[in-house]
Amino acid sequence: MSTLTVPHSLPPVSDDVEQLRKAFSGWGTNEDLIISILGHRNASQRKAIRETYAQTYGEDLLKALDKELTSDFERLVHLWALESAERDAFLANEATKKWTSSNQVLVEIACTRSSDQLFSAKKAYHVLYKKSIEEDVAHHTTGDYRKLLLPLVSSHRYEGDEVNLTIAKAEAKILHEKISKKAYNDDDLIRILATRSKAQVNATLNHYKDAFGKDINKDLKEDPKDEFLSLLRSTVKCLTRPEKYFAKIVRLSINKHGTDEGALTRVVATRAEIDLKIVADEYQRRDSVPLDRAIVKDTTGDYEKMLLALLGHNDA
Amino acid sequence: MSTLTVPHSLPPVSDDVEQLRKAFSGWGTNEDLIISILGHRNASQRKAIRETYAQTYGEDLLKALDKELTSDFERLVHLWALESAERDAFLANEATKKWTSSNQVLVEIACTRSSDQLFSAKKAYHVLYKKSIEEDVAHHTTGDYRKLLLPLVSSHRYEGDEVNLTIAKAEAKILHEKISKKAYNDDDLIRILATRSKAQVNATLNHYKDAFGKDINKDLKEDPKDEFLSLLRSTVKCLTRPEKYFAKIVRLSINKHGTDEGALTRVVATRAEIDLKIVADEYQRRDSVPLDRAIVKDTTGDYEKMLLALLGHNDA
């Protein structure tokens, strides 16, 4: 469920474009005007705005925004203005160049998107970077990380609901055997998580819990500081409970000393039109405070306003 | 270049369908009639025939053909009647269930098709088998074979012509180092072959030859009986010289004692509309005998007639 609110009677695209242009011109930038427009337009409306802006002023709206805005607010508006496939390609490309925590982003993109969305991101990656996400992930990672991340970003998973219970039982057993032996980088363990359909992974993990008495992620917590184990747990969560996964990312980004704007920005920009309502509910259930209130407490200025707009506040 | 010949003035699809129905009815089957129609219709025409046949007679043409025809002829007509994405999915599915020589088929499909064609095959696989080619390949292979085949079938390679010469040089060096140490299953060696664009692989292998004085496939021939090495050589060939690869498959299928109809059928059915003319030229250059003559010598009956029809003989 989306949190985005779009006005009932929408001005023509040409008006939006003109207003944005106005917001950029003269002394200073009118951030409120930018938020009141872009913070309340859905993907196809933003796409139309970007196209019309380019036709009208011969300049990419993204370039104009980057010139006018700064820091966290700039990044949020920039990510939000991108089409979702482009945005995923952009985030994945950033992640291949950085290390450690950005692996999480790759898992997120590989495992929380539908197969078609992931494929669209791969096509956008070709167009934007003249290479494939697969080669960049493979090139910039090594060892166990590569072993896990490459098949995760590569697989085009089957998306039907059909589940093979014989396979679910057999593979739950394999997972349990490998985890018991601490063979976390085992070929079969990775194969199962990286190639099976989400419905099938879910059936396997349900059986795992039934047969062995514990959530697989509990068993994958042997060493809480082990980054590879943490990546495996993210994989499991992203595949089976994406809204819980995102709620946790948001929680960690807000609750640690100093907000982790990178993660907060990413989750809000990528989920506002998908399931941010559920993520926010999940957040509140766990933290006993509404997400918007937590955001107000932890952020300021235009960045805060844009976050709240995307969370559904109308008076941004 | 295609070898297929299609009549200048084509009968209406309804006529083709009626003629095929006639060929199936009465005493025996009129194979010549089947060949004269299906052996001279391109992909979209065959698709229209299959659709119209199903609408007219409430039966899948493929089922009707399977009932009427037998052995090699049946398989050739069956493969030929499939749409290319379905055919690739069908061949890949067969290959995941069998072992050894069928690995070649997976390499062939993964490396000689365009990224879009491979993706279409993956989508057809979802529809036909309610699972993904990735999970089947991963499930039915082990060890080094899985390590190579899974990324090969999974990657959506970049298809542009852009080449990064710095990477080409660096990766040629990596390949040479690994091969010198006989580390044929090395992570980086497989990563380079499995994820780089064909243009990039080609640049890297050209640099390999320039810098180290030998074709990589010569260096991958240490033990001619090693099946994994043979698969690596096929990968290289399929990525860089598909027509040479196919000519060799055809040559081996014809020249060994007893023709390997499986391979011959597959190559003719999958390449007739793509590059069978070049494959045949390549065959003749190497064997000093035209491919059609070699086929006449080695095959018989309706199977031979259909092969020749697909090779461009008009009097099939």
UniProtKB/TrEMBL annotation, chains A, B:
CC per GO annotation: cytoplasm; plasma membrane
Entry annotated with the keyword Protein biosynthesis: no
Keyword entries, A-Z: Annexin, Calcium, Calcium/phospholipid-binding, Metal-binding, Repeat
PROSITE patterns hit by this protein: ANNEXIN_1, ANNEXIN_2
GO-annotated molecular function: calcium ion binding; calcium-dependent phospholipid binding; phosphatidylserine binding
Residues reported to bind Ca(2+) 3: D298
SUPFAM superfamilies the UniProt entry points to: Annexin
Pfam families: Annexin
Gene Ontology biological process terms in this record: response to cold; response to heat; response to salt stress; response to water deprivation
SMART domains membership: ANX
Source superkingdom: Eukaryota
Binding-site positions, Ca(2+) 1: F24, G26, G28, E68, I254, K256, G258, V296, T299, E304
Similarity annotation: Belongs to the annexin family.
Record remark on domains: A pair of annexin repeats may form one binding site for calcium and phospholipid.
Name of this protein: Annexin
Organism: Vicia faba (Broad bean)
Lineage: Eukaryota, Viridiplantae, Streptophyta, Embryophyta, Tracheophyta
